[in-house]
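Ticket #4471: structure output looks truncated?

Reporter: J.K.
Steps to reproduce: submitted the chain below (339 residues) through the standard prediction queue, then opened the result file.
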Amino acid sequence: MVSLLRTARRALLALAAASAFASPAEAHAQTTGRVRVDTLWSNALRTRKQFVVYLPASYDREPARRYPVAYYLHGLWGDEWNWVRNGRLDAAMDSLVAAGGPEMIVVMPDGDDSWYTTWNALVTIDACQRDSTRKEPAAAYCVPWPHYDDYVARDLVAKVDSSYRTRADRRHRGIAGLSMGGYGAVSLALRYPDVWSAAASHSGFVAPLLDAAGPFDASRPPRYATDVAAMATRWRDYWASLPFAFGRDTMGWWARDPGRIAARLQRTDAARMPALRLDVGAGDRFLDQNRALHFTLDSLRVAHAYAEHPGAHDWTYWRAHVPESLAWLGARLADGARP
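Returned output as attached by the reporter:
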């Protein structure tokens, strides 16, 4: 017995010594996650796509451990690197974990300028290649069959769950995004409640048909446009992709409206309504859209978190508030929490 105690004591002393004399690089590696690139073949898009993955610091040290997953979607004209290079999401995750927050895998896919939906109309590959000014190869950007919702919800989730040590159920899976990605996060969570249990939107395009006639009046229901021509004028700087994704008539836009999707889910499967969180800057051009969806969710008695902060539609705002959505998702996806 004395021999065993002496051996154990020596092992502990050796471990303590090794920790004390670890190089700064080694100490840093023990407390920070790592970012890597991966790819998948998407049956929904019929092309190969790239995605970026943040793995928590303990991922390599604890090979039997499984993790919740948060999916973070970029905005229009963005790419899969935006959340790391512009939003410093990896540093935000490291800080949250260092402060005692739960660890998660974070997946950031390439969503093109897709609005994360199945498109209402098709554009030919030739036309797409002529119009595309993106740096990525046209073969990956100009997809032959734009089912971007199934690409994220089915193909990407299946790839991540088969390649990484995830908690592969809706209870441990959330989604978030900014601007176009905020729309994607909310609409995907509402349309695929079997996949995600929580969704967060920063500055989301979340009430696309909201009428532009004056500021939103929270004392009465939102007013919506009845003519897509008005949308073409209002969103002319986004119009290269909007009519393909949403359609050229209000029927196509209404089918993709988060408020209407939430109303349908509340009627048919309220038990699987995802936890929702919306935030937006007071100087953001989508402020009224977020207020309108907030009003609609309140009217439906759908529980959700809502916040307005100083700021505009830019990376200064998103960098400041991504720690909040990460912490909110982490708390809901952790074991023992209620989404």
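Triage note (M.O.): checked the attachment and the full token line is present. The two ends are 49 Å apart (CA to CA).
Status: closed, working as intended.
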